[in-house]
């Protein structure tokens, strides 16, 4: 404390010095300010202040503002939010705390995401701040959190934590005390600097001198964080001792060398799609990047996933074509989406529409069409046979690659019948055109013969064996071994155990 007081006094003297407009003196004053801030950071990193019998690096102030937030979290309208966030904290906080300690920052800052995002990795604010640590895009880029078509690293808890640590270290070098650092983290360092400069006060003065002059959200931010620390330090007093926190998220990594959907990986491996999305939260669309990806999978499944990589279908992006539609009386977004087999949200995006409102008659609307691979078209169930005048008619929107021949084949009818109903010829169908079709009988399906059983024998597991190595040595697959032995993908094999092989 004495060292900090001395530095505080030195800083006050520096602020009193008027360098005028001399750029050399201005730079020297700035250098001295930076040096003092760094010394304070070193002191905070190497010491701990004893508060209420516990050792903390952040003084636990208690005043009216902090008490109001404690009441809101424990007995007021935010109690459910606090308990839910506290329960989720178990997934991420232990790892965050370790990273903070390694960086020399107070481990109590690991509770900051409770205020920022409620420990929700996908939390999105009205200001477009995203993730556990609520980075806006520009600040994310400053701290190497990249964003592209497939990945947004603000959604990755580990990468976002590294960015938050760098940001807070820089803020502490600038301001010197943690309360002001938190205010800067919330509303930006420039806003805090302007507030300080407008009051002509010392950077190292008490944060509460700034409290009334900061934006309301930021003014509450610091008391909310301090209230969180008070509650966490006395769980029994505030009824948290019975709340079970969720276990940490653990994972293994597997290099997937091709682009694939998480949904396809889940189907091929039997791993829950929800778990894969949680472990790989930075994948914005649930699709791996084009040039390979280090996929996170549940513990004990990496070997199985590696063995099934060849079975995972590669992702083939759908091609989007846009057609122009001239709005007629009675048209709505829902009607256009249904007519063209599109989506209201995509139509709004294509036309820069913020909300789904009425359409102007005579205006041209862009309607995006997605080219669906032929094997992904929904199956058409033919209607029961009825008199010709009651046959059911459906509509088909002409898409890229369509011809009358493949349309007729898909719906079990003939090109001549399509031409007759629509009064057209094969040469004049156009992209986006809506054709009326009376489905016929679907083409007969080829019978699939079940695989013939092969001769099985037993194999005694040896030390060092894995399902993958056993399958490879016996010219079979891990999946086949699992079926033969009624085993689950996460099953363990022990030396001496006998298993069936082919």
Short structural summary:
By secondary structure, the chain is mainly alpha-helical.
Descriptive overview:
The chain is mainly α and 502 residues long. It folds into 4 domains: 186 residues, Lysozyme; 60 residues, no CATH class; 119 residues, Membrane-bound Lytic Murein Transglycosylase D, Chain A; 45 residues, Membrane-bound Lytic Murein Transglycosylase D, Chain A. The protein is built from 19 helices and 10 strands. The strands form 5 sheets. The protein has a two-stranded antiparallel sheet with strand order 1-2. Strands 3-4 form a two-stranded antiparallel sheet. The chain has a two-stranded antiparallel sheet with strand order 5-6. The longest helix is centred in the N-terminal third of the chain and has 24 residues. The protein starts with a helix and ends with a strand.
Just give the CATH class of the largest domain.
Answer: Mainly Alpha
Helix proportion: 40-55%
Low-pLDDT stretches = 44-56, 372-390, 442-454
Number of strands: 10
Beta-strand share of residues? 5-15%
Q: Assign the CATH architecture of the largest domain.
A: Orthogonal Bundle
Biggest sheet statistics: 2 strands, antiparallel
Mean pLDDT: 81
Radius of gyration: 32 Å
CATH topology-level name of the largest domain:
Lysozyme
Major beta sheet, strand line-up = 1-2
Specify the overall morphology. extended
Class from secondary-structure proportions: mainly alpha
Compressed to H and E, one letter per element, the order equals HHEEHHHHHHHHEHHEHEHHEEHHEEHHE
**DSSP summary: helix tally:** 19
Number of domains in the coordinates?
4
